[in-house]
Amino acid sequence: MARLPWPARALARGVLLMAAASIVIFLCTAALPGDAADVLGGGRAAPGELARLRAEQGLDRPPHVRYLDWLTDVLSGDPGVSLITGRPIGELVAQRAGVTLALAVAALAVGVPLTAALAWAAVRGPRWLRQTANAVIVAGAALPQAVVAAALVAWLSAAWGLFPPVSMLPAGEPAWSRPDLLALPVLTLALPIAAYGAALLRGAIADVMARPYVRDAELRGLPPAAIALRYVLPMVAAPATRLLAVTLGGLVAGTAVAETLFGLAGLGELLVTAISTRDVPVVQSVALLAAAVVVAGLAAADASRPATERR
Amino acid sequence: MKRMNGSVEPIPQVRAGHRSRAALILGAVSGSMLLVALGGAAVAGRDPVAIVAPPWSGPGPGLPLGADALGRDVLARVLAGGRDLTLTAIAAALTASALGVAGGLWAGWSRGRLGRAAASAADLLLALPLLLLALLAVVTLPGPAAVVAGTVLGGTPLTLRVVADATATARRAGYVEAALSRGERGGAVLLREVLPAHAGLVGADLGQRLVLAVQLAAALNVLGFGPAPPAPDWAAMLRENLQGLGLNAAATIAPAAALAVLAGSVAALSHSLWDGRS
Amino acid sequence: MRRDGLTVRGLTVADRAGTSIVDRLSLRIAPGEVLALTGPSGAGKTTVLRAVLGALPAGLTRVSGQIEWHGAPVRAPRRWRRRTVGFLGQDPASALHPLLDARAAVREALPRAARGAGAEERALAEVGLDPAEIGRRRPHQLSGGQAQRVALARALAANPELLVLDEPTSALDPAALLLALEQVRRRRGDSRSVTLIVSHDLAVVRELADHVVRLGPDGRDDGVPQAPILSPGGKPAPGGRAVPGGRAVPGGRVVLDAHGLTIAQPPGGAPLLSDVDLTISAGESVAVLGASGSGKSTLLRVLAGLHPAERGRATVAGQALPWPVTERSPAALRALALVGQNPLDVLNPARTVGAALARPLRTLRGLPRRAARAHVRHLLAIVGLPEELAHRYPATLSGGQRQRVALARALAGDPAVLLADEITAALDTRTAAQVLDLIDTLRHETGLAVLAVTHDPAVAARAGRVLRIEGGRLRPHPCSHHRRPSLDVL
């Protein structure tokens, strides 16, 4: 294979990944026949009626033809309409994206510094801090998100009365206008992210700290800050970027639990509602959007690697 | 430190003893939690779906944990509400782990183009958001099957990579080379030498998969893809009772604690079995 | 402040179990003096050095004693190291930050005020590097020798009051070592500089140092009865060499015969070793020397069947040796045994010693379970280990014990040839000597032939024949008395 320059290779990989993701999404949701027609028929349609509905929706054509049709539609910017409400999917997504975006950005803003602090404490802190940080990492990465949410509500809202327990954002109001409503969902998202990220980053940092040139720098008496910034940071930048990309992608789908529990109408909640009503076109579009965020992040991490990981 | 040649090294023994005691305690905790989750309904002797009190009544005589949003016995629901979730999680973890161990042994041993391709495909799957995969699976599959599918898609690649790395390293280990050079077949060496040598790693990894499966099952059940409504379920209870936290906190805290102890003790056990993985 | 240099008073360092690694060590280096710390590996030299620098690795603690600099205890060791100490570690080339070029590496060692204005260039020129050519290169663009010199330049750049060199004779190539020693000579007697050298190489340090402090061997026993050896016929040589020189038994039959072996790494790639001819007779001991990466270990792996030969053929005890190993006849499999170098992974951590020894007895000799178990005791006795060890796991054995078990496992098939790959590399001098004695005795008494790959002069000195891999060929080594080139230079 010809050696393409780095950014081009990252881009090519991204396109391939996206194609693979779209096939997986399509196979999961649409290749098994019946669902969409069942929904349209209200679940009680006669066999003849079902066949008619299928033909109407084009569901009787072979899967690869339907996949290509769907892909063409999405690429031309027309993902179709919701089976349930009949509204254009683009409009639905745009309406919900604000809340999810606010949640994701805020969760990253809280989670990223927390990740760095936890990982650093787990590797470099004094003994008690190391042990505490490790316990927090193990527990935080293990707890189901719903448990974190329940604990936060019980502690910050019910016991201390700091935040309203359930948000119920007034319709039409942008999410960031009510930071107090977002606090609990954001923490629910940020804490597991930080613990999970720190568990991965801890390994990378410990790995770099064990390399001979870092040991040598310690013996030469370099200040800890210089070792952290000049010796460790450039070496963990690549895995950290990748981690960030994966986390960001995970957030788009991962907001579902937080949005549902706290009553926020975002993309995750849209996805869950669409799944329970078998609104296949909506499911496909939201999932594809989440996949696109992951793939774009990975491609960015890939493309930035030569700057940070020259050997 | 070049202090490896004393008669019997006391340091690793002392630390191994310390560690195995911790593992023992954590094993007891997670074991009894699993027992409660699986057998709680049988010993409860109470009906988890009968309405016995006004909604969100506080704890009182006959109702140690009070009542939930519909006035059902919280203790009975907690005792009965872990079984399906735990069984699903165990099935998912075993499937994911078995596939990953088999694939990892093969990929790490063969080190051919196919093995490397499997490893990089696994890397790719790691990047996918797990909950999204499970949610996509739930479109066509029932909830428990979606948990298994999500755990396999998200967990097997991790297991595969860890086991493949360990196997590739073990391939150059003295005991493996000695076995190979006395003519033992690859499969026998894998099963007799490599796998037992990494039993701790595989056990710890199984624990990680179990935690993952519990998280996934909890998420799907909270979102309403679990057991149909009157049936008790820890995760669904969180959603049902979060609003009534001010009235009967136990209705939320008890199932949350059950989930937390289950996932937390398994994770800590796994961590104590095998520390130092990324 | 008095200027009386470095003083160590009653230094005692212990590990977690409370065993003292360094016991009440005192030493003093006045300005202008050079002190050499010597002793066999495992004697705690590196531990003393780390304790002096105030940077003991995790698990070790300074139980008592004091480190004083110019008469006052060192309070903030890190700042003290930064200001006062120039340090050159055991592996200088890998001590360079991969992303920093040579100039930046040296610059890092300079105090802020001294940076720029050509100080970095001067420090590089001082060690014989051309700053214009080398200054902008990163470690991966430097040769090994150049990288060592950059590290040396960094250690010397700030003209440190205390210079610490850790094993310079093995860390540096001969030319860089000469440079370093020249610098030490210059520091000596300038009534300012204090120099501490850690080395196992007495010859070098004696000539250079004002004081030599010798740390004794750890004095701890291996916990094993000294090789009681085989049958009543054989007479064990107490602690010494069984067969001096290790000549082949006269008229000994040929047990290993290889012709025209060509070996490629990776298989099918460019040849690493070509046309190897090798004949070994019963009871003979042959050592193979060569630079790392020259293919000496691969040669053993080819014979053991772990790596394919591109061309050529080999026989052992009259049996052909095909590749892959699974094609070999049971007799051929029995006749060859490989022992590896790393005591940490030479035994399976999940198998008891007894199980590890019983397996080859059953697969190679076809012994039933019960007979194999009985024979395990015999094998342990041969290598001088108590039979209770059969129930232990490798984690509870010392490095020397593990190598003995590995040897016992290799002997299980009653081999004609033992392939020994750096088997003493990870052992301390004393334990290594015990293992080598044991092999010599076996050779003498059972006619076992040994093909040993090594870089250890002690192993080569015992061999009857020394071969050397150079330029992809296996050649006889001119003199079997092998010395480090760095010593010849001096």
Can you give a write-up of this model?
The complex is a heterotrimer of chains A (311), B (278) and C (490). By secondary structure, chain A is an all-alpha fold. Chain A has helices at 6-29, 35-40, 47-57, 63-75, 89-124, 127-142, 145-159, 179-209, 212-219, 224-262, 267-276, 280-303, 305-308. The radius of gyration of chain A is 23 Å and the shape is globular. With 278 residues, chain B is an all-alpha fold. In chain C, 32% of the residues lie in helices and 23% in strands. Chain C is built from 17 helices and 19 strands. In chain C, the strands form four sheets. A six-stranded mixed beta sheet of chain C has the order 15-16-17-12-18-19, with helices on both faces. A five-stranded parallel beta sheet of chain C has the order 6-7-8-3-9, with helices on both faces. In chain C, strands 2-1-4-5 form a four-stranded antiparallel beta sheet. In chain C, 47% of the residues are buried.
Helix content of chain B: over 70%
Q: How large is the count of helical segments of chain A? A: 13
Whole-Å distance between the termini of chain B? 24 Å
Overall mean confidence score, pLDDT of chain A: 79
Major sheet summary line of chain A:
none
Number of strands of chain B: 0
Would you identify the regions of chain A where 5 or more consecutive residues have pLDDT less than 50?
none
CATH domain fold name of the largest domain in chain B:
MetI-like fold
Query: Any guess at the CATH architecture of the largest domain in chain B?
Result: Orthogonal Bundle
Summing up helix and strand content along with how strands pair, one would put the structural category of chain B as mainly alpha
Number of domains of chain B: 2
Largest interface: A-B, 57 and 45 residues
Q: Over the alpha carbons, how many angstroms does the gyration radius of chain A reach? A: 23 Å
The helix tally of chain B amounts to: 11
- Poorly predicted runs of 5 or more residues of chain B: 1-16
